[in-house]
Write the structure tokens for this entry.
Amino acid sequence: MKTSLSAEVLRALRATLVIAVIGGLIYPLVMTGLAQGLFHDQANGGLITTASGKVVGAELIGQNFTSDKYFNGRPSATVDENDSTKSKPYNAANSAGDNLGPSNQALINAVKQRVEAVRKANPTLKGDVPVDLVTTDFSGFDPDISPAAAYLQVDRVATARGLDPGKVRALVNQRVNGPSLAIFGVSHVNVLALNLALDAMKSS
């Protein structure tokens, strides 16, 4: 009986060791290697740097731009991780959506207020306001907006910076990204990348 028990214990230890090596060492190394090789930028956080090498943000996490001199992103419903009653837009440490249904009066009121704010900030706007400028996303820090949402803001940004609206619109055209692999998702504009290009254009 003792010999049999010892054999079973050794077999269990060997199995544990093999599983630990495969699951805890080989698999993570393979996945890390594939991620670095196939999705290098995303695997490293999609960091965006200036020409001087300074990290100013991440391509995958939105920032709270509110100035008329910059393109504004999608509204964010995230709150402070230490105080859930305190709003903290684009808080990547506390991902969350507002979880309000389309018939919820609080959402209806919030959307109405955002629509009014967008129209007030962009007086040349004609037609409807793109939905992504007045609703939050599930993560709370969506870094992208639709091309329509970007074009809507061209006149405001150009006026605030004293630039030719045509040049600003051309800049937006250059920053429109199509669906991933031409089939996944929709066309979008990364707000941080666009605003950095805007600053570079101003200084050029």
User: Anything to note?
Assistant: The chain has seven helices and seven strands. Residues 96 and 152 are 27 Å apart (CA to CA). The mean pLDDT is 88. The beta strands are 47-49, 55-58, 79-80, 83-87, 144-145, 176-177, 188-190.
